[in-house]
Amino acid sequence: MEHTQVAAPRAPWNKGKIVGQKAPLKLKDIWALRIRLQMANRVRELALFNLGIDSKLRGCDLVKLKVRDVCHGDQVAARAIVTQQKTLRPVQFEITQPTRDTVQAWIKQAGLRSDDFLFPSRIHDSPHLGTRQYARILEGWVQELGLDTAAYGTHSIRRTKATLIYRRTKNLRRYSCCSGTPSSKARSAISASRSTTRSRSQSRQRSDRPAARVSGRSSATSGPS
């Protein structure tokens, strides 16, 4: 008699997870995290965070940056050009003065040379920081800020600067240029971000209603006898 093995049902990878567009960081969150990293003297993480915001690169491109990609000689350049791994297209980005200072401090502290990876891994088998390591570091940042880890990811860093520029200028074309996405995708990304923010605010309101009802009932029952 033949026995047939029945494969155990596998749970879907996205079960219980929030999928879709990841929320960008707000300006207050950016400054709060920068202050935390500065006070803790976490130079490597501060350089990674600031350069991630300025470059708007995907995580796979950010972790593979070399010192020569952002430096001219011994100094960090004001602009850099990097070829993206996904699209194989070159992208140019500006490096602000605070970011240049933190990257310069990190290069000096780590003793990096021109051909070295800007963010070397602390694991011997990997020459540079991996995307999963970067995601774990970002998850720690989100936890320090008291935010929902399910709502933020490495793509949040990529979207942050472009979103801040759009909120200030309301210029979709400028957002598209900053984020490196076509106008149609940029429009859908903005609408998705708005709907996500709206749904989260509605869920918070719903969660607050039962507490208000309970407190109302308890105050009514604890009246003067």
How is the secondary structure organized here?
Layout: H1 27-39, H2 43-55, H3 59-62, H4 67-70, E1 71-72, E2 75-76, E3 79-83, E4 90-94, H5 97-110, H6 131-144, H7 154-169, H8 172-179, H9 183-221
Antiparallel strand pairs: 1-2, 3-4
The biggest beta sheet reads: 2 strands, antiparallel
Q: How many separate helices?
A: 9
One letter per element, helices H and strands E, the order comes to HHHHEEEEHHHHH
Query: Which range does the strand content fall in?
Result: 5-15%
Shape: globular
Number of extended strands: 4
Overall average pLDDT: 79
What would you note in describing this structure?
The structure is a single chain. The model is unreliable at 211-215 and 217-225 (pLDDT under 50). The protein is globular, with a radius of gyration of 23 Å. Strand 1 (71-72) and strand 2 form a beta hairpin. With 225 residues, it is mainly α. The strands form 2 sheets. The protein has a two-stranded antiparallel ribbon. Helix 2 crosses helix 5 (97-110) and helix 2 crosses helix 7. The chain contains 9 helices and 4 strands; from the N terminus they run H-H-H-H-E-E-E-E-H-H-H-H-H.
Question: What are the main properties of this structure?
Answer:
225 residues, mainly alpha, two-stranded antiparallel sheet, disordered C terminus, two-stranded antiparallel ribbon, 9 helices, 6% strand
